[in-house]
Write a structure and sequence with these properties.
The chain is an alpha/beta fold and 207 residues long. α1 packs across α5. It is globular and about 45 Å long. The protein is 28% helix and 22% strand. The longest helix has 12 residues.
Length: 207
């Protein structure tokens, strides 16, 4: 059974945030807002929930999920961060960026790029995400809410709820979301490569 939780985007009601975290901890899939688009999230390492997101998106087996973390210190548990990468991360987090980094052994192998052993990592600049991660006590596995045959991510929580009712446990309604994806930066090989230009500006990094 699905529920919609109307949570204030700037001052999240902690009782409702804990309800969403509890659903995640019980193996659920949650739709939640970020500083770019709405996303589908599940608990790290929950294979069944991950497969449900794959089915919702009709993703290929090599579709890469993003690990959503609270801060730099949490990133260091799941990714190898050298000095150059740390400077970039410190400058651009929190914000609408996805960083490709070498994964540590804390990341299940099925979530890593099979050849490069890398993982995408995010620290969104959004109060609800921060509160949700704090309540959950661990990162989220995440994928943009882009459904099959749609050209753009879903933005209206009421529409999201109607389309996904019975397929996810929780839809967090924080108002209309965005459609511009994150800027993706590959830091896995010691230098920064821009994989995709998106919402995040590269202040002092060439664009």
């Amino acid at each position: 059974m699905s529920q919609i939780l109307r949570i204030h985007p700037d001052n999240p009601q902690l009782r409702l945030v804990r309800n969403a975290a509890e659903a995640l901890g019980n193996g659920g899939v949650v739709v939640y807002p970020t500083d770019s688009c709405y996303a589908l999230g599940c608990q790290l390492g929950n294979k069944a929930a991950l497969e449900r997101i794959r089915r919702l998106r009709r993703s290929e087996r090599d579709h890469e999920f993003t690990l959503v973390c609270r801060d730099l210190s949490e990133i260091a548990l799941y990714a190898r961060v050298d000095n150059a990468a740390y400077r970039v991360l410190r400058s651009l987090t929190p914000g609408p960026y996805t960083f490709i980094l070498r994964a540590t052994n804390e990341v299940p192998k099925r979530l890593q790029d099979p050849k490069r052993r890398s993982i995408g990592i995010r620290v969104p600049d959004h109060a609800i995400v921060a509160a949700l991660l704090e309540a959950l006590g661990e990162p989220l596995m995440s994928s943009t809410l882009l459904l099959p045959d749609d050209d753009m991510p879903l933005t209206d929580p009421e529409d999201i709820y109607e389309r996904l009712r019975g397929q996810v446990e929780v839809v967090i309604d924080a108002g209309v979301g965005g459609i511009e994806p994150t800027t993706v930066l590959d830091l896995s090989d010691g230098a920064m490569e821009v994989i995709r230009y998106g919402k995040g500006e590269l202040r002092g990094f060439g664009r």
